[in-house]
Design goal:
Elements lengths: L1 H47 L5 H10 L6 H6 L6 H10 L8 H25 L4 H47 L4 H9 L5 H14 L4 H11 L3 H16 L4 H56 L4 H6 L1
Helix pairs in contact: 1-8, 4-5, 4-6, 5-6, 6-7, 6-11, 7-8, 8-9, 9-10
Length: 312
């Protein structure tokens, strides 16, 4: 009987200690999960906080009606085949929440809008209303294509512009002893734009268990900027060979700045002949015409005008 009581007491204290240990482990995991959720929520909030212009709000409003015409838009796919549109939307960062089907329908919405505007101008009797009535629907068809192409080009340019500063900052964090993922997570919180969107998505994929090399490959597929692809390829090589990337980042940032400076000098050199051409063939003749006009007006209406000489 005494052995049973002693065993019960020992089991009681054992289970009590185990309960405290498990409760402590639960508390630590709960705090870690809260920190992770806050970081993810803050990253998503930074990605969503963007001021929308009146044009953006108008396009989002029109895109609501695009789903009804997506089937028709996929059949009329002149310069807008679905595989090409999908690649273009990915490079543009899926602007206005457009999917491939919604983009195809958005073309038809713009055609209908162009037809309505052309009809309105025709009944109001505007000059060249007949031309607008015919051309505006065609222009409306191509507006979404050029709009998304422009968004994709602008996004890649913004990615290239912010990349040197981003690499320098990450390089400093790496030299201070921080890990690559931790340095990227810390730095992207101070950026807004494509560079922040891409690396935020990369960090989220890594935390969800996506293989690192696959996450890098997805970043390459989403962007066609040469400098950005070189950075990602260096990260892939570093993950395979174990090469430190801090020095590589700093060298790549310096090289990008040097190339940017050379491009600015090249654009300035190309602008000089254009300015000379405009000055020679537009500004100078206009100045001569103004001087000649003043001379003619003085000869006609001045004190020593021709009419006064003949009248005397």
């Amino acid at each position: 009987m005494d052995g049973v009581i002693l065993t019960s007491i020992l089991l009681f204290w054992l289970f009590l200690v185990l309960s405290f240990v498990n409760f402590y482990s639960y508390s630590k995991n709960k705090e870690t999960l809260k920190v992770h959720i806050n970081e993810v929520a803050m990253t998503q909030q930074l990605m969503k906080v963007k001021k929308k212009s009146t044009l953006d709000r108008f396009i989002i409003f029109l895109s609501r009606y695009a789903d009804d015409f997506s089937a028709l838009g996929e059949r009329i796919n002149f310069y807008s085949e679905s595989p090409d549109v999908e690649v273009l939307l990915i490079k543009a960062g899926n602007p206005y929440g457009l999917s491939v089907a919604r983009f195809q329908g958005f073309k038809i919405v713009c055609v209908i809008l162009g037809f309505i505007i052309g009809t309105f101008l025709f009944f109001l009797g505007f000059p060249f209303a007949n031309v607008f009535f015919v051309t505006l629907p065609f222009i409306g068809f191509f507006i979404p294509i050029f709009l998304v192409r422009g968004k994709a080009k602008k996004r890649q340019e913004l990615l290239r512009r912010d990349l040197p500063d981003f690499l320098d900052t990450v390089s400093i964090s790496l030299q201070a002893g921080s890990g690559l993922d931790g340095a990227i997570k810390e730095v992207i919180s101070y950026y807004i734009g494509p560079i922040q969107e891409e690396f935020s998505r990369f960090i989220q994929e890594i935390e969800l268990g996506v293989p690192r090399e696959k996450a890098y490959t997805e970043m390459l597929n989403r962007n066609d900027n040469v400098d950005f692809q070189n950075v990602i390829k260096s990260l892939i090589q570093g993950s395979r060979l174990g090469v430190p990337v801090a020095t590589t980042f700093r060298n790549q940032a310096n090289e990008m700045r040097r190339i940017s400076l050379e491009q600015v000098k090249e654009k300035a050199a190309k602008a000089s002949p254009k300015v000379t051409l405009i000055t020679s063939f537009i500004i100078a003749p206009l100045i001569m015409l103004m001087i000649l006009g003043l001379i003619i007006l003085n000869m006609i209406y001045g004190e020593d005008s021709i009419f006064k000489l003949f009248s005397n």
